[in-house]
Task: structure prediction
Amino acid sequence: MQKKIVSGLFSGMLASLLLIGISAEAVAGNKVWITLGDTAFHQLQKLAPQTIAKDSQIVVANPGFQGLTGSMIQEKVHLVEVDEQQLAGLSAAIHQELKRCGGFMFHPNESAGRVALSTPASLNAIAASLAPSYVIDNQTVVTPMLSQMQASNIGQTIIDMSGYANRYYTTTNGVNATNWLKQKWAQMTSTRSDITVEQFTHASWSQKSVILTIKGTENAAEVIVLGAHLDSINTKGTTETTKAPGADDDASGIASLTEVIRVLVANGYKPRRTIKIMGYSAEEVGLRGSQEIAKSFKAANTNVIGMMQLDMTNYKGSDKDIYLYTDYTNSAQNQFVANLISTYQPSLSIGYDKCGYGCSDHASWYAQGYATSMPFETAFTQDNPYIHTENDTYANSGGQANHSLKFARLALSFAVELGSDGAATPGPVDKVETFTGSLTKGQKASYGPFKVGAGGSFAAALSGTGDADLYVRKTSAPTTTTYDCKSDGSTSTESCSINLTANGDAYVLLNGYSAATYTLKVTYRPQ
Result:
């Protein structure tokens, strides 16, 4: 999580920066754009009194809240241009005064910030249209796998990751750590041709994110995402040799997901839906890695039906076992996650809390209209006091990974229960259009364009008397010699279908081989 821990509150922007090792000459640094919640904005104004918001919006932070205990959560969110060097002081003040995460999202320019600020008003409708059935009905598959998961495996991954001096997103160590993770996941899955491991390149910094994909067998276009961040940070500043082991924040989340991968592969599990497991770069500096990935998925119209974030899983500092955060998450999915815990780990206790705007990578997916959940290791104000220092070590989480094991089991049950099911309901509804007419010999009739949605099919069916031929083409109108599909039998009973991987146009041509009367029926998923 984005936190900066300091010895005490400070007065004035310059004093705060000096406390965390930033010189007066560095104050006037690069200008950057961020969005942040109202209480965090007031802390920024204390540090930089002349700061003004370029835009502000009221954001609903828990769509579908009626499905879970509690009431609607709203927060005023601001778009601000600041000196990049001010971000460290801002995070420190938020932690000291508000007892919460730094809670801001970085944006490459003002335009991107305004887009992020304008959370879609139709978030509830988006979540409902993509929501799967949350019935839990895969106990015979899930239960045996849960018993195979081992805390010792999770602990070893934490030790391996925290062995890097730091994993800051601009350092050599940060690059080496992401390469190590890619290689580890690739080796674990090398026997499976349906599993790929790749790195997501971020143009503005050197550390890459890592994405593992288990391709769905029947409904591959429907995607489940599980993520954790692979970077780490030390609040005192970062050089190549700075110690920021990040054992809990967030090697523990990566390690929990790594154990999920191991057990899925060991059992030969093949999901019907596609499962993607991600290690995000640059979370600690404004959710930068996950934002770029989530935006790319939205731009490609990827049907992500559920996303879970594991940010810190191995420090048990509160009385409950797993806390579900209710803001910037989806209430219906949160209820499903609670039901998973009750079904598969009935001895565990569940708590609920809030973490505010931009507290971890689930916020990046929430901002794109996807259903998100974030189970967390503690209540919000009782989290690990060692994070973002050289003392965030495996030993200071107890030298074992029993707490992380609970989250690994939850993540596996989430992946398998959603991954084993069929098409999301209610899904997109196909559109049907019907046309009638007649043709003389050699006469032609054209129809289109029909606007077909990504991943959909376009089917044309012809019936009638006489002899008419059918031609279908993507992108532009067909001719009798240029087409993607043709049907030219000796009657007017003809059919053609094509698939479109991206949004596109489809066209139909009818040709009277002899005189004919016809009914043309086209069926397609609209954009």
